[in-house]
Please model this.
Amino acid sequence: MNTHDLIVQQPAAARQLVLLFHGVGSNARDLLPLGEALSPHLPDALIVSVQAPEAAGRGWQWFSVQGITEADRPARVAAAMPGFVQTVQRWQDQAGVSTAQTTLIGFSQGAIMSLESTQLDAPPASRVVALSGRFAQPPRR
Model:
């Protein structure tokens, strides 16, 4: 667990996991209002706003956007994906839930990471919500 991740809601026995992933230059705090809005509707969910691992100015990012092009974006996402998946798995372990009980909600760059995780041989979640985001490249499956 990243010490900057913020638990929005932690039920005694979680039956679902909802992870929120912010955009570039932002931080885990910025998605707290979304998590708080969801919590009354998901009383059995552990809801966590996850902070990206790389510093980006005054905020954080999942992968560098310095000099990024459409051609190199997929490689940058792929390089960041193992750490992203490990983060999801750590929270799944803490919540005691499976992939089937996990939802990823991403905004902007967090949406790119969440959507691209669906293209893995073993996607880390059964549901993805993308807000103002897209695939880094056209979906392969």
Summary: Residues 107 and 120 are 20 Å apart (CA to CA). The two ends are 30 Å apart (CA to CA). The first strand starts at residue 6 and ends at 9.
